Amino acid sequence: MDVVLLIASFALIFIGSALFTNGVEWVGHKFKLSESMTGSVVAAIGTGMPEVVIPLIAILLVGGTGGGEVGIGAILGAPFTLATLAMFITGLAAFSFKNRRKQKATLNVSGQLTQRDMGFFILAYLGAVCVSVIPEGKAVTALLFVGVYVGFVWKVSRTPAPSAGYDSEPLTLGSMVARLKMSEADPNPPTLLVVAQTAVAVALIVSGARLFVSQIVSLAELLHVNATLIALIFAPLATELPEQLNSVRWLRQGKDQLALGNIGGTMVFQTCILVALGITLTTWTLAPIELISALLAIAAGFWVYLLSVKNRFSAAALLVNGALYLLYLLVVLSVR
């Protein structure tokens, strides 16, 4: 394992996520998308690219037992980390920025929209667990998961959502061009420039994830640790970094719906599309440690669903999700 390459992979993901957060807001403005569509679908698909790339690289390019273990571990670990650690970081960020936020430590989000996201996530993740016990014919069910995601996107497009109610920060790429020209940034940047920045951001995120997966396999071999455990714990910390960074930035700016919508929408995207890939490309047989992570992820999603029903999104409430992540770490360390 090369420490320099590992750090470089994190840097690429960090820079890419910063550009993406800014760019995807402008994409929403330019194409007149609702706040829900921007956060739960467009941002979710863009920041979810590393989670798609890692299993594909691990399964198809790395191959063998190690590649398969990393692939399945990354597929399950991605939504698990979002449901637990990312939600915890969201609550922590809201608390940390409470003195500069109008809504303080309370998250100003739509309970209806969050119920929708968590409902689809719980349905898909339960399905992923159930499919793992089917002895044969699993590949056919992959189409069902793709169908569920198509249904989710349709539901998002049909769900009435309030307008954003805020102004986006200047486009980063536009500001850079303006500095080169020694002029002021265009308050309404061209659509082509908006799309270009967003595309570059996704490319940086995917490149960072691709570099990271090779280092994860090397780390597992170096430490003589089960590759599945490495993939379940460490891989998502890097691949979910874009969602976590995006959410922290949006929370700091008071854009709570974008922050939580990005996490919830990515959870649905990952669970549906990644599980479909896992079912198609692997045996999709879950070990006990993987089943535990799945059950904890479902519990975390259900907790957020309950909060959305009662419309009580406080920073303290989301700390429960962090406790579930800590519980999983304790389980992993005890069976290592």
Could you explain how this protein is built, in words?
The protein has 336 residues and is mainly α. It has one domain (3-335): NCX, central ion-binding region (A middle domain of Talin 1, Up-down Bundle), CATH 1.20.1420. 79% of the residues lie in helices and 0% in strands. It starts with a helix and ends with a helix.
Key attributes of the depicted protein:
336 residues, mainly alpha, A middle domain of Talin 1, 79% helix, 0% strand, globular
Total domains? 1
Reported by name, the CATH topology is A middle domain of Talin 1
CATH class: Mainly Alpha
- Helical content class: over 70%
Looking at CATH, the homologous superfamily is NCX, central ion-binding region
Structural class based on helices, strands and sheet pairing? mainly alpha
N-to-C series of helices and strands: HHHHHHHHHHHHH
State the major sheet.
none
CATH architecture: Up-down Bundle
What does the overall shape look like? globular
Radius of gyration: 19 Å
